[in-house]
Specification:
five-stranded antiparallel sheet, 9 helices, binds adenosine-5'-triphosphate
């Protein structure tokens, strides 16, 4: 009922009467009042005015299931929500939910992670209270070798979703979102598959929202929305915006099972587009000019001798010639 009442309160800029709510939801006035009291206890500022009704003045920065449910405008992305105050890693929670049969689009969100992870065993700093740690369960009916494209789908969706709050958003191929040359978001895609089919895919996203300090090792390369915008932001609307973009972009991806419908938008946001990058592979490190991505999500680069090369994300790290981007 909390979710429904939040939705009703948000459906107007004015007041909603207790009578209206009780009629629409088929519950007693007393039950409505009790739920409003519970919302107020959770930090929602709900004004109650005699003869007018209730009006929501301020929403706390919470990512509870009810708050997220009341903001979600999607059909499947983020419709089934698992919320954790603290968990080891939302990717692990979604992998488990996937194994247990959770539906496509299930979203795990945590306020804090004790074992946040990056690619290749790296860690993701995940303190409480001011960032988003979330993972989505996808059940695509595609070949396992196409799953890495979902990282690109998510990166574009996050960039477009949070781009509504912050302009100047860019993507560092394949999986990081960058603002002013620093990392705002990391994405980690993991797959559970048989030889020829996918059981499920977990796409995890860490977004630095209101962090103002980072550990020394990443102080020069990490940033947050708050540091870039100069004010704090609410996390739940950001999540809802990303889910909306994900739903649309994922469906575009599925039509062709490749990135042909998304690669132009993604390439336009590439931080290194038309710039020299250092490609750090297992066997060699070399410099080349980044051109964009192709329909499979590989990075196209032009080597100094003019030849074009495709870089597969699993193998390498890409760095700017003079620094991180
Ligand atoms: P590569 O450039 O090789 O892809 P990466 O730096 O993108 O590597 P990821 O796996 O995406 O690696 O992210 C993990 C790295 O991100 C960590 O090694 C650390 O340097 C950095 N990092 C960890 N936590 C945060 C955070 N909260 N915000 C920004 N950067 C972070």
């Amino acid at each position: 009922m909390k979710t429904e009442i939040l939705k009703l309160l948000r459906s107007t800029d004015g007041y909603v009467s207790g009578q209206q709510i009780s009629e629409q939801l088929g519950v007693s006035r007393a039950a409505v009042w009790k739920t409003i009291r519970r919302l107020q206890d959770e930090g929602y500022q709900v004004e109650a005015v005699r003869n007018k009704g209730y009006h929501i003045v301020e929403t706390p920065d919470v990512m509870t299931k009810e708050e997220l449910d009341s903001l979600m405008k999607t059909r499947w992305a983020g419709r089934n929500i698992l919320y954790y105050e603290t968990t080891d890693s939302t990717n692990l929670r979604i992998r488990q939910a996937g194994d247990e049969g959770a539906p496509h689009g299930t979203l795990a969100v945590a306020d804090r992670q004790t074992a946040g992870r990056g690619r290749r065993g790296r860690t993701w700093e995940s303190p409480a209270g001011n960032s988003i740690y979330m993972s989505v369960l996808l059940r695509p009916d595609i070949a396992p070798n196409k799953a890495s494209m979902l990282t690109i789908v998510m990166a574009l969706s996050v960039a477009e979703g949070i781009g509504q709050w912050i302009p100047m958003i860019q993507i560092k191929w394949p999986n990081d979102i960058i603002v002013n040359g620093k990392k705002l978001v990391g994405i980690l895609t993991e797959m559970s598959a048989q030889v020829d089919y996918i059981n499920h895919v977990t796409v995890g996203v860490g977004i630095n929202v209101n962090m103002t300090e980072f550990p020394e090792e990443i102080a020069d390369t990490a940033t947050s929305l708050r540091l870039e915008c100069g004010h704090t932001g609410k996390r739940a609307p950001l999540i809802a915006a990303v889910m909306e973009r994900l739903e649309e972009n994922y469906e575009i991806f599925l039509k062709t099972e490749d990135l042909s419908g998304l690669m132009d938008r993604y390439s336009a946001l590439l931080v290194n587009r038309d710039r020299d990058v250092r490609i750090i592979g297992e066997k060699e490190t070399y410099q080349a000019r980044a051109v964009g991505i192709d329909h499979t999500g590989e990075l196209l680069v032009r080597r100094e001798d003019g030849s074009m090369e495709k870089i597969y994300a699993g193998e390498v790290s890409v760095r700017g010639v003079y620094g991180y981007v």
